Amino acid sequence: MADWLIETEELARLLKTEGDADRVVLDCSWYLPDAGKHAIDDFRAGHIPGARFADLEQISDPDSPYVNMLPDAALFAGVVGALGIGNDTDVVVYDAGYVSARLWWMFRMFGHGRIRILNGGWRKWKAEGRSIETGEASVATPREFVARPVPGRVASLEQVRTVVEQGGAAIVDARTPARFQGAEGSGYPGVASGAMPGAVNLHWGRFFDSANNFVFVSPERAAEIFAEAKVDVNGPIITTCGSGVTAAILGFMVERLGNKDWLLYDGSWHEWGQRPDTPKLVHASPK
């Protein structure tokens, strides 16, 4: 498998010894709309030295009625180029929650494989007492980034509808059980919670070790988690969630286990849940 992770120890060493390398560290923290706050304020309060802030909303499709959708190549290239990223730049993404895998996925969807996730992210970096900067990010020198979209890696509404009706793949939903079961709001105003018929609920948080600064669980433990949910991790898999963000965590773990053929349903529940022509289930509230 590709080494998509970088440890805090290694990043700290690289920042100290290779300060002039073609490397950009991106803080991509983000909050659901109902949180009532913006992660840029957290960035200003403290971030990894030299890091820049990648705003998920600015790097998503502004014309889609559904949130956080993959943008077109020109928009993606313009945003990351303005962050000082070229096609040969090594990119490290981190956050304080669950967004890094989404950026990992997006960069790769536009042909950029020089991308790694900081294992444990901001929480581990801060817990270890490592150097922190405050205030705005340093001004980046714009670079040319040529986006090369990779086809066939995103599940469409119709593909998911076909699987719901006929089978042929596992649909794995990363949301909390309460949202999956309809016992809690979706996190998006005006969008009811619930689930797709036949989907398997596998909360994204299970793939982080909360007792160890929120690093990713080992591939061995990830395999056990999928097996416990009766998901064939080697078979066809479509990942989904509220808006395509935490779905990337499931895909990240599937790929770490050797399956590169998984698909991410980009519209996720934000699309499926609002459409009048899609079947929906609301289960009994968890006891």
Précis, in short:
This protein is of the alpha/beta class and 287 residues long. It has 10 helices and 12 strands. The chain has helices at residues 8-17, 39-45, 73-82, 100-109, 121-127, 157-166, 177-180, 219-228, 247-256, 268-272, and strands spanning 5-6, 23-27, 52-53, 90-94, 115-118, 154-155, 170-173, 200-201, 208-209, 215-216, 237-240, 263-265.
CA-based gyration radius: 19 Å
CATH architecture of the largest domain: 3-Layer(aba) Sandwich
* Tally of DSSP helical segments: 10
Distance between the termini: 39 Å
Number of strands: 12
Portion in helices: 25-40%
Cross-sheet strand order for the largest sheet: 1-5-4-2-3
**Main sheet record:** 5 strands, parallel
CATH topology of the largest domain: Oxidized Rhodanese, domain 1
Q: How much strand? A: 5-15%
> What is the average per-residue confidence, as pLDDT, rounded to a whole number?
94
What would you give as the CATH superfamily of the largest domain? Rhodanese-like domain
